[in-house]
Design goal:
By secondary structure, the protein is mainly beta. The chain is built from no helices and eleven strands. The protein is elongated, with a radius of gyration of 14 Å.
């Protein structure tokens, strides 16, 4: 069994910051790419940022220069530093990871999500 658990969401004012964390646990051999997605009310889930096992990153245009994704491979954890938050950043933020388990299977796992609300 593999679990992803996010934390760090909350209610902030525009211009403030939050640091989101996602910890993977369970029968993990290795983790390939990890990423953050978000879903606003009435909208489809969208990619926010992704990081490979080697540390290469990619961001949605809407967050470039404001958000930073990083990971700690020793802790099976991915972070998302969100700065200069805007009301349009409001949504549920989900962690996603491509994980190889001890059964030798590569699967995609999702966390349960953490709510980020930015007031104007």
């Amino acid at each position: 069994q593999v679990q992803l658990v996010e934390s760090g969401g909350g209610l902030v004012h525009a211009g403030e910051s939050l640091r989101l964390s996602c910890v993977a646990s369970g029968t993990i051999v290795s983790i390939n790419s990890m990423g953050w997605y978000r879903q606003a009310p009435g909208k489809q889930r969208e990619l926010v940022a992704v990081i490979t096992s080697g540390g290469s990153t990619d961001y949605a245009d809407s967050v470039k220069g404001r958000f930073t994704i990083s990971r700690d491979n020793a802790k099976n954890t991915v972070y998302l530093q969100t700065d200069s938050l805007k009301p349009e950043d409001t949504g549920v933020y989900y962690c996603k990871a491509h994980i190889i388990t001890i059964q030798g299977i590569l699967r995609t796992y999702w966390g349960q999500g953490t709510q980020v609300t930015v007031s104007s």
